[in-house]
Amino acid sequence: MALLNNNAHVFQSSPAGAVLEAAVGTKLAEMANFSTKTAAGLTFPGGSYSNMHALMVARNQRFPEVKHGGIVALAKAGVRPVIFTSAHAHYSIEKSAIAAGIGLDNVICVPTDDCGCMNPVALRELAHREIAAGGTPFFVNATAGTTVLGAFDPLAEIADVCEELGMWLHVDGSWGSPLALFADPSVFEYPIPAGRINSLTINPHKLLGVPLQCSFLLMRDGLGVMRETLGLNASYLFHSAPEDDESADGFGLHQQKQQLGGSWDFGDATMGCGRRPDAIKIWISWRYYGTKYFSDRVGRARQLAIEFADMIASRNTVHTSELGNWKLFVRPQSTCVCFWFIPHSEADRHTGRKNNNGSTNPQCWWGDVTKALCNQVNATGKLLLDYACVDRFAPTSVPGEYNKNTVPFFFRIPFNSPGVTVDTLEAIMNSIELAARHLYSN
Questions:
Q1: Could you tell me the pTM of the whole model?
Q2: Which keywords annotate this record (predicted)?
Q3: Among 171, 296, 334, 340, which is most exposed with the fewest C-beta within 10 angstroms?
Q4: CB 217 within 8 A of CB 41
């Protein structure tokens, strides 16, 4: 506890924490296909703060006048910075835009395909539209494992657009990136393209099961850009000039100092000061369990998602329910399964029902059924389920414009715990059917 209750802002106050943070960050960056000669990583208190720092760094690198003149300097120059993110991305990107002074009006949500992946064609169209309107696109947030569907955006195609237009490419892999880093390629087919993304967020406290909180922001080009764009080199904390700081030589890691921005004092590379040595948590877990454990853990979670999706898809044929039909929303790309259970009685009652725009939509009431079933299951205290909804998009005849339709609420189950078995999956389905019997069987 004393080790974890230390302050990791300067090397002298947490030398072991600093060395471990640098080592783990470098190893994760290597596994993410970053160059081991340049890349480095830092911990932050959660994925939201990792994402925010990526945006802050990208903003100040593209617009260096902001560090001293603020957003006012851009306004005086008639510059309107614009960022892009998937319509299914985590809300932390929009909150980061608020904190960075970009504003929600300059956050462009890019439509997704039917599987929930960002549409790179739409990204290019929207970026050119913003340029034509006087905006300056500079940052794209792609997602490795979206919050609801667990979708992986097509990073290589998105990188093409970013390189073409000079935009920073950040990947929010808070949830899903451990699959790309640790899973056997034979069971997971969404790699991170080597050298083509600028930064990556990964949360070991999610799929890897590391205790809260533990989030890394990995930087392709090292921490120098973070110190340059965010640092102040406060003399009351950071006493040594970078070229004189030899304090870590005894650990045999002096060669890493360049990747760390020339100093082992990490606090000046962030927007904060005091910080916990969170890297110790993953280092201890990694040393104790080993890489194979992490690989097996995320691989098993992925396999459970596939098995559960198959059970849902086959339930109506192999084990026909007398109460209703199971409907899978999309095939899971990672560890999250989204689905509906539609009671026969409700389907009969709602046949031909009209929705608000006057067209027949047999799905419009599925959301109410999902919420009712979920609440009924949760009330038993045996299982806790949740539900969510997303938007789907269809292109129009106008480039960059898409029609949006909100999908009714569905069950959403992200798999992670090693304690979940096939029996657990069967229990989930049985509990939902039992809830339907209680609510809809007359």
A1: 0.92
A2: Lyase
A3: 296
A4: yes
